[in-house]
Amino acid sequence: MRAEITPPKKLEGAVLPPPDKSISHRAAILNTFASGQATVTNFSPGADCASTVRCLRALGVTIELDAKAPGTMVVNGLGPHGLHEPTRVLDAGNSGTTMRLLTGLLASQPFLSILTGDRSLRSRPMGRIVKPLTLMGAEILGRQGNTMAPLAIKGNSLRGIDYSLPVSSAQLKSALILAGLSAQGDTRLHQPAASRDHTERMIRAMGADLKEDGLFLTIRPSALRAVDVYVPGDISAAAFWLVAACCHPKARVRIEGIGINPYRTGILDALLSMGAKVAFSDRRDEGGEPVADLTVESSGLKATEICGEMIPRIIDEIPVLAVAACFAQGTTVIRDAQELRVKESDRIKTTLQELSKMGAKIEELPDGMIIQGTGFLKGASCRSHGDHRMAMTLGIAGLLAQGETTVEGAEATSVSYPSFWQDLENLCQR
Ligand code: S3P
Predict the structure, then answer these.
(1) Known catalytic residues?
(2) Among residues 159, 185, 220, which one ends one of the domains?
(3) Do residue 144 and residue 247 come from a single domain?
(4) Domain for residue 294, yes or no?
(5) Which numbered atom of ligand 1 lies nearest the CA of 312?
(6) Is there a single domain that holds both residue 67 and residue 158?
(7) C-alpha angle 157/160/166, rounded to 5°?
(8) Quick check: CB of 171 below 6 Å from ligand 1?
(9) Are both 253 and 188 inside the same structural domain?
(10) How does DSSP classify residue 233?
(11) How far is the CA of 169 from the centre of ligand 1 (A)?
(12) Distance in Å, CA 171 to ligand 1 centroid
C-alpha cells in the first residue's frame, strides 16, 4: 500500500494511541505460563501481538477473544507444566519480542519447538538469547552458528546462572527471567543499563520471587498465578503525535491514556529538554503501570544530545526524534544507539536514506547520527523498508514537509498501529 501525505493547515484533536505492544505480549505469555484464568483488556490489535497469540495457541493454551469487546480476551493459564509440544513450526512473523520471550519460555519445556519469523526477523541476532539459555541447560540450534532463526529448541531442566547481559535489552532480560522462573537455584542478571521493566512488574503481581538491586536482578524459581491486565496506550505510538504536534506551526493535540513507565519516557524527556510544550493531566496507575493524558502544542525546539543510559529508554523512538531534530534549532547528536542497526530494519541506514530524500541534513555514525536542524523538509517518494516505525516516521515527516510525500509499504504500520493512517487523517485540518 502507498500512503500519500500532504501537510495540513492545522493539526488538532484528540487521539487514543493503540494499546502498548510490549505489555500486550507479556500479558498473553505470562498468563499462559501462570495458573488460573485472566482477562486482558485493551490488548494490542497489531500483527505482532497476534503472532504471539497464534504461537501460544499452538502450544495448547485456550485464548478466547470477546467478539463484542475488541481488545478483550480471556487467557486460560496452563501453568509451568501444561504446555504441549507444537505439531507445527511456530511463526513469530515480524516480532522480535515474540521470538525472544517464547524462546525463554520454551527453554524449560520437555519437548521440541521450532520458531521462525519473516525475512527481517530471520536476519536479527538471536545468539544473545541462545548463549545464556544454553548455559542454563537448554539445547538450541539455529542458523549461522546458532545465532539466527529458525531456532530449534529442545527444552530441559534448567539451572540458574550468574550472567552479565552484553546489551541492555528487555527482550533478552525477559527471556532469561522466564527461564529463571523454572530453573533450579537463583538466576542472577546484571544489566549494562536499565531497560523497560514490564516483565518484572507483571511477574511480581503474579507472585514471583524477584529481587532488584540497581542493575542486578535475582529470580528464584516461582509459580505464577494469573492476573487480569489492563494494557495502557503505547508511548512508542504516541511519540509520532508528540513530534508532529511539536514541529507543526499550528498544532494542539491531546493524547489520551499513555503509559508513562519511566523506562519508556526517553522521548518525553528528550522533547521536553528541546523545549516541547507538553502538559500532563490525570496521572494515574492502571494495572501496575503509570498512565497520563498529554496535551502537546506547536513548540520552538532546540537541538539536543542523546546517548548513554538514555538510549534504552528511547530506542524505538529515535527515527521520529530524527524528524524532530530536522525542525530544531542547532545540531542534534545521537550516539551509543548501535542497537538501531538490528531492529526491524537497520534504522540508522533507513532513517538516513529516507529523510535525506526529503532534504534532511543527516550524517551517519556507526552508533547513531548527527542531524542539522534546518527547519525544512520537502515532500519525496519514500519507502518503509517493511519497518512499521519507519512507515510512521515518514508519515510524520510528510505532515511537516512542503509538498506531497508518498510512503511505499505503508501497510507495515499494521504490526503495531493498524489505525495509524486513519488517526493521521483525523488530526489534519485541511
Ligand atoms: C521490547 C524491547 C526492545 C524494543 C522492542 C520491544 C520489548 O527491544 O526495541 O520494540 O517488548 O521487550 P530490545 O530488547 O531488543 O532492546
Answers:
(1) 316
(2) 220
(3) no
(4) yes
(5) 16
(6) yes
(7) 120
(8) yes
(9) no
(10) B
(11) 6
(12) 5
Grid look-up 495509524 returns 420
β partners of residue 382: 407
Question: Are the C-beta atoms of 246 and 273 separated by less than 8 Å?
Answer: no
Last residue of a domain, one of 165, 185, 220: 220
Q: Determine if ligand 1 sits within 6 Å of the CB of residue 97.
A: yes
Residues, the chain: 430
Reading the block at residue 409, the C-alpha cell is: 509499504
Q: What is the pLDDT along the chain (430 residues), one digit of tens a residue?
A: 999 999 999 999 999 999 999 999 999 999 999 999 999 999 999 999 999 999 999 999 999 999 899 999 999 999 999 999 999 999 999 999 999 999 999 999 999 999 999 999 999 999 999 999 999 999 999 999 999 999 999 999 999 999 999 999 999 999 999 999 999 999 999 999 999 999 999 999 999 999 999 999 999 999 999 999 999 999 999 999 999 999 999 999 999 999 999 999 999 999 999 999 999 999 999 988 999 999 999 999 999 999 999 999 999 999 999 999 999 999 999 999 999 999 999 999 999 999 999 999 999 999 999 999 999 999 999 999 999 999 999 999 999 999 999 999 999 999 999 999 999 999 999 9
Candidate from 25, 94, 171, 343 with most ligand 1 atoms within 8 A of CB, to mutate: 171
Provide the CB-side half-sphere exposure for 364 (13 A, CA): 15
The atom of ligand 1 lying closest to the CA of 342 is: 15
Instruction: For residue 377, tell me if it sits in a domain.
Output: yes
Residue 2 CA to ligand 1 center (angstroms) comes to: 27
Enclosing domain of residue 90 = 21-220
Q: Are 14 and 161 contained in the same domain?
A: no
Q: How many CA atoms are closer than 13 Å to the CA of 7, on its beta-carbon side?
A: 19
| 88 located within any domain | yes
The total domain count for the chain is: 2
- Lookup result for grid cell 507538553: 278
CA of 173 to the centre of ligand 1 (A): 10
DSSP-derived letter for residue 252 is E
